Inverse folding.
């Protein structure tokens, strides 16, 4: 095993340090070491992603306690042994611990098929030729994925800026008709919310936008805070010791909310009392927004069958029908992934999208008909992106399978 080296010990130059993981570059440098390895030594990850071999590019070097150094008698064997180690299935060597781990004794017991020198050179040359082609194909696929990411970002940006579909103002002008613009729609929403409110005491006006939070909008649109457009409610605090009364119900956690979708394959239960059932309910059309983890990650709940609740790590936004919930998700994904929300998150190290901040967030308000066209057009683009991404991922998996099959075939005795 390597030596214990802490990240705070690393400097910009000196003796190279190699650690576990996929990168072939040094983790960092330390001033000196009493143990040094040269070009005849390989490094294998011993913890976490076990069995990943490396050919250190910088010599001399030292490796950390998360790796095992394999020093060969002949430096010419480095590449041959490197590729053989990549061909192995390390699951039988994994120690029965929480963190996957292999031991020096396990590595010492690995039997390397030592062909004659000519065959060894031929094996290495053929593998490098095949992998060069595979690497090029994989690089092309990764470029496609990067382009898809940029394409999606441009679609979301165009959607919230009024450039994805023709605006209602432009259509109405061309057709010689009037229309309900964004400001009129907002006033209708505020009026209807005020008139239909059934809470206790006097109606509290929602938080309006201030000069500190403004956005530019196209002709016919306006802007408003989340609080003006819908009602926002944090979920129930999770405390299994206190929450023993009531009946058990499934509830959504942060991890269940993905961008634009829900993963309910791993849903927990906790007790909810009768007076909490409506307060923490999730209806079709509600938007669930992550408060922490990846703040602002959001999706529209569409199920009308599942009786679902939600916990305090999530905001629930409920609209009254005049503002499409999908538009909030589109806006949040654009703002979050473009970095526009970063300065709003609370917490110095762990980001939080607090309720106080979230309700003040300013959103674009297009006319109702235009909202529907925007959501439909975004969905059309994202469907194309998902299709292509699925094909790219399938090809990447095939490339990895081909790589492993090529390695296995190369070392058949």
């Amino acid at each position: 095993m390597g030596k214990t080296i802490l990240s705070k010990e690393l400097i910009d130059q000196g003796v190279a340090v190699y650690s576990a993981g996929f990168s072939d570059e040094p983790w960092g440098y330390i001033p000196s070491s009493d143990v040094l390895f040269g070009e005849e030594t390989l490094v294998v990850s011993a913890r976490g992603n076990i069995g990943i071999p490396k050919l250190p590019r910088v010599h001399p070097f030292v490796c950390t306690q998360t790796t095992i150094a394999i020093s060969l008698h002949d430096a010419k064997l480095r590449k041959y042994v490197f590729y053989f180690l990549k061909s192995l299935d390390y699951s039988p060597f994994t120690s029965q611990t929480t963190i996957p781990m292999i031991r020096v004794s396990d590595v010492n017991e690995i039997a390397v098929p030592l062909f004659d020198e000519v065959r060894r050179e031929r094996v290495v040359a053929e593998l490098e030729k095949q992998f060069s082609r595979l690497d090029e194909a994989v690089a092309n696929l990764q470029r496609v994925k990067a382009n898809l990411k940029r394409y999606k970002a441009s679609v979301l940006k165009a959607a919230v800026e009024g450039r994805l579909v023709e605006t209602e103002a432009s259509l109405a002008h061309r057709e010689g008709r009037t229309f309900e613009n964004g400001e009129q729609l907002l006033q209708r929403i505020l009026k209807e919310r005020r008139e239909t409110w059934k809470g206790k005491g006097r109606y509290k006006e929602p938080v309006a936008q201030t000069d500190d939070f403004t956005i530019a909008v196209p002709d016919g649109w306006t802007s408003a805070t989340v609080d003006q457009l819908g009602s926002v409610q944090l979920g129930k605090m999770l405390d299994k010791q206190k929450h023993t009364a009531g009946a058990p119900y499934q509830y959504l956690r942060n991890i269940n909310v993905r961008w634009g979708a829900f993963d309910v394959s791993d849903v927990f239960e906790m007790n909810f009392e009768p007076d909490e059932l409506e307060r923490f309910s999730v209806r079709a059309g509600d938007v669930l927004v992550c408060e922490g983890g990846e703040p602002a990650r959001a999706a529209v709940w569409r199920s009308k069958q599942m009786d679902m609740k939600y916990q305090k790590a999530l905001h629930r936004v409920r609209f009254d029908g005049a503002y499409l919930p999908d538009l909030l998700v589109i806006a949040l994904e654009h703002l979050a992934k473009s970095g526009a929300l970063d300065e709003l998150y609370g917490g110095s190290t762990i980001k939080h999208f607090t309720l106080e901040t979230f309700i003040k967030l300013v959103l674009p308000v297009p006319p109702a008909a235009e909202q529907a066209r925007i959501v439909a057009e975004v969905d059309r683009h994202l469907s194309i992106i998902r299709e292509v991404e699925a094909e790219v991922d399938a090809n990447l998996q095939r490339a990895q399978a081909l790589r492993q099959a090529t390695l296995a075939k190369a070392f058949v005795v």
Q: What stands out?
A: The chain has a mean pLDDT of 92. The chain is about 35% helix and 15% strand. The longest helix spans residues 117-161. The two ends are 30 Å apart (CA to CA).
